[in-house]
Amino acid sequence: MMAVTTEITTDATTARARFVAARLLVAGDAFFFLGFLFAYLYLRALNSNGRWHPAHTDPSIALGTVAVVAVVAAGVTMQLLGGRSQRQAAGISLALVLVATVCWGIQLFNPGFSPSHGGGYGAVFVGFSAAMLAHMLGAAYWLETIAVDSSASSDQLVNETRAATVFVSFLTGVAVIAYILIYLV
Asked: Where are the alpha helices (DSSP H) in the chain?
């Protein structure tokens, strides 16, 4: 009887720790991405000699739109399906995150302009694209482990999915804000 109680308490403690760790990861990442927001706002406000956004310094709007739609769809999938069918939600979200990862990768390595002549906009765009690509790869790995881990119990799977949902939802918000600033404003 004592071993069962200890095991349940340990599982509950592990689940809580995992969820708190996911929120701490998101909080740390929020400060990381705030650096890009600050750089964007500062360099745009500074605009030395009209060099913030030189002519012909426009990344592909089609790739940016596909990337943000894929990330938003992944976040919505995790929110809607994550509580009921964790592996299915993780698998669908994984495919969508991989689509977004490919789009960010293409834009990072072929932005459609020379970053050395892109002014402040080009610098912020390339830096943000690299950061988003790294985060998308991390999210893809996390979702892949959920989708294929057959040894996890249903409680562990639910807890892991909850934690991953926090991170994917955060990336959804970052992608939407970045899309508005980089492509629309």
From this structure: 2-46, 61-81, 86-109, 119-148, 154-179
